[in-house]
Design goal:
Helix content is about 55%, strand content about 5%. It is built from 18 helices and seven strands. It has a three-stranded antiparallel beta sheet with strand order 4-3-7. The protein has a two-stranded antiparallel sheet with strand order 1-2. Strands 5-6 form a two-stranded antiparallel sheet. The longest helix is centred in the middle third of the chain and has 42 residues, at about 195-235.
Amino acid sequence: MSSPAPQAGPSSARTPDLDRFWHPPPPSTARLPALRATLAKVPSPALRISRVAQLDASLLDGELEGILHAPVKAALDGVRPAGARSFEPEFLALLRLAILRMSLWDRGATYGSTLQNLRYRNEGRHAKGLQGAATDSTLSRVQKFAYTLLVVVPPYLHSRLQDQMLTSSWADEPLPRSWFALVDLRRLLKRGARRDDEMIQWRREWKRTGWELLGVAERLSAVLGLANFLVFLYNGRYRTLIDRVLQMRLVYSQRAFVPNVSFEFLNRQLVWEAFTEFLLFLLPLVNMHRLRLRLTKAVSSRASKSTALRLLASALPAPVAGTLGLSSLRSSSSSSNNTGPLAPSDKPHGPLAFLPPHTCPVCYSRSTAPPTHLPSASFADPTLPSASLLHHTGGAGGPAAGDGDTSVKVPYVADCRFACRYCYYCVVGALAKADDEADDAWTCLRCGEEVHGARREEVEPAQDDEEEEEEEDERAGGASADGPEP
C-alpha cells in the first residue's frame, strides 16, 4: 500500500508567484551615481532671472525699512533731550536684525523678494550643469549668519565712526608728515619734556589718518558696488556685492507662476502725469486774457438777445455778473447795435463824419479828449501808437480844438466801404487794441462800419509833369518854325 504524497507547504506555493512578479534590478542601475556625478560637467542652459524683479525687490525692502524706521525716529526725537547722544543707529541696526530674522531666517528670502516671487539659493551647490535644476538648494546657516552680519554691522559701525569723527573734528587735524612718522616709536620712547608733545602730535596725525582711511573705504566700496552692478546688468546673477561674496543668488520660488499684479493704479498715475505735462506745455501757448474776453463777449452778446438770459443776469450777484460781463448788459447791447452792419447810404454817418479827409479821426479824438497824463514824451504810454508821440508838435490844418497836429501822416485807408483815411500808426494801434480785446473788428470813426485791416493809400500821378512836357514840346516846335535869326 503506497503512502500518500506529501502536501506542499505555503512557502513552496508562493515561490512561483514571487519569481514571476519580482525581478532583480538591471545592471545599469549601478551606473546612476556615476551619471549623476558627470551631470555637473555637462553645460546646461543658463538660468535667467528678471533683473527688474530683483531691483524691485531691493526697492521694496528699502521702502519697508523706511516705513518702520520713521515712527521709531519720531519717537526718539521726542524723548531724547537736547544735546544728548542719539541712539538712532542702534535702533536701526536692531530693526534690520528683526526684519532679517523674520524673513531670511524663516523663509529664505526677504519680504521684497517674496513679493516678487524670488528666494535665495546656495549657488555654490549648483555648478554649470545644475544651474537650471528643478530643485534649488537652500541657504546654509553659515550663509544666513554671514549675510545678517554684513548687512547689519558695517552700516552701524560706519555711522558711529562718522559721528564720532565729526564730533571730535578729526577732519581738522593736521596731515601726517609721512607714513613712517606714524609707526616710528622711537620718538615716543624718548624721555624729557618733548615726549608729551610728540605723543599729542602723534595722536592728532592718527586721527586725521583715520578720517582719510574712512573716506578711502567709502570710495572703494562705491567703486566695487558700481563694478558689481555693471556685472549684474550683464549676467543678472548677483544683485549686490554681499550676494556675490556669499554666493547667494535670487531665483524664482515658483517657476510656473503667473503674477497677479494689478496695474490699474500705475496706469491711472501714468495717464494723469502725461495729461499734466501736456497741460503744462499747452497753457503757455494759449492767451488766457483773450480767451476770457472772447467768452465774456460771447456770453454778453447771447444774453443781449435772450430774455431768459437777461433775467438770469439781473438775478446774478454783482461779482459774478461782472466776471461774466453781464453787469453792463444794456450798454453792451446798445454798442453792439451801433457796431452792427449799417444801412447803405451815400455819405459816411459815423461819429466823426464831419472831419475833412486830411484830418485823422483818431488824432482828432485824442486831441479833443480831456488830458489823462502829462503831455511829455518821457511819460508816454509805450503801449499806445507811436503817432501819439508825434502829435505833440504844433501844426495847422484841422478843425481840432487842441494844439496838437491832427493831419494825416503816412496815409493809410481802411477796408471799410468808404475807404476812410487814417494815420498809419493810429489805424494800426486801433486794430491791435481791438485784437487784444478779442474784438472781431474795429468800428470806423468816420463811417461807422467795421474795419478788419488797412492798406497804403495809392496816390494818383500828378498832371503837372504832363503839362510841363506839353509846354516844352510847344516851345521846341515854335523855335524850329521861326528859324535862326540872321
